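Weekly sync, protein design subgroup
Attendees: M.S., D.O., the rotation student, P.L. (late)

Item 1: inverse folding check
M.S. brought a backbone from last month's batch and wanted to see whether the design step gives back something sensible before we order anything. D.O. pointed out we never logged the input encoding, so this time it goes straight into the notes. Structure tokens as presented (265 positions):
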């Protein structure tokens, strides 16, 4: 991250939170995070057993990500890949997506050999992200915001792309409920920047309410993609239009992405 404007800020976590989030947003994060702790506890117990059976090793996976205005933090996830999985595969995949501006389909869809048995289900459904409730309570993340990117990804951002870190990263966001894997990198950036400029209680509420349906669509897309890969379908097959509640266009015109059918006005 060679852009001085987005070097990690010399702020205490408390000062960073106060600058990054209005009181209403932080209050919602704390309330919902505390309510979700019992659910997280049950999933930790379940994942401990499952991981021990299918892929001995740590239950949690901690990865350094880029947060608000370049602050680095350790993001938590349930481990869904084999211990010592090669990260360069994802880095090369992301680079290709940025260069081609193709839909941001995950490697999971094609059958990533690094995944533990059943790992793709956890990733597609977002259940692997549940430990990030702790990141939310700690103030490094919010319930709603742009997904925090890897340092290797941030290094590939142009200056215009880096405005997306002007919002605190979130568990879900405008991009996630606007097609996600059916959108391109440029569309993702435009949606995240639009959110950063228009943070409001009503917008956060809309995104939270649309998230379960968006996750269901993501699971369906991943399942279809894996079936197509298993049948050796021709590469580059187009994705069907996103015919969901998103087509009702809950966003104001300046939050819509012109080339994304899921959010067109």
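Designed sequence read out in the meeting:
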């Amino acid at each position: 991250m060679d852009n001085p404007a987005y070097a990690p800020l010399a702020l205490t976590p408390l000062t960073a939170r106060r600058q990054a989030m209005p009181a209403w947003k932080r209050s919602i994060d704390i309330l919902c995070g505390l309510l979700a702790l019992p659910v997280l506890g049950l999933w930790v117990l379940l994942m401990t057993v499952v991981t021990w059976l299918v892929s001995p090793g740590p239950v949690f996976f901690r990865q350094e990500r880029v947060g608000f205005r370049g602050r680095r933090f350790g993001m938590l996830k349930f481990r869904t890949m084999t211990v010592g999985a090669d990260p360069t595969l994802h880095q090369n995949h992301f680079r290709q997506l940025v260069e081609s501006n193709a839909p941001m389909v995950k490697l999971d869809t094609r059958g990533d050999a690094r995944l533990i048995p059943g790992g793709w289900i956890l990733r597609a459904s977002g259940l692997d992200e549940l430990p990030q409730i702790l990141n939310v309570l700690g103030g490094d993340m919010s319930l709603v915001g742009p997904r925090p990117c890897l340092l290797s990804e941030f290094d590939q951002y142009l200056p215009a792309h880096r405005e997306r870190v002007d919002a605190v990263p979130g568990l879900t966001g405008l991009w996630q409920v606007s097609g996600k894997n059916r959108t391109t990198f440029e569309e993702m950036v435009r949606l995240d920047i639009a959110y950063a400029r228009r943070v409001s209680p009503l917008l956060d509420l809309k995104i939270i309410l649309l998230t379960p349906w968006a996750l269901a669509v993501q699971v369906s897309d991943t399942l279809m993609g894996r079936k197509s890969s298993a049948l050796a379908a021709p590469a580059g097959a187009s994705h069907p239009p996103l015919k969901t509640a998103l087509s009702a266009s809950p966003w104001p015109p300046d939050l819509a992405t012109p080339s994304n059918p899921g959010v067109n006005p």
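Discussion: The first strand starts at residue 60 and ends at 66. The helical segments are 13-20, 23-54, 88-100, 119-125, 132-138, 151-154, 185-197, 201-230.
Action: P.L. to compare against the previous round before Friday.
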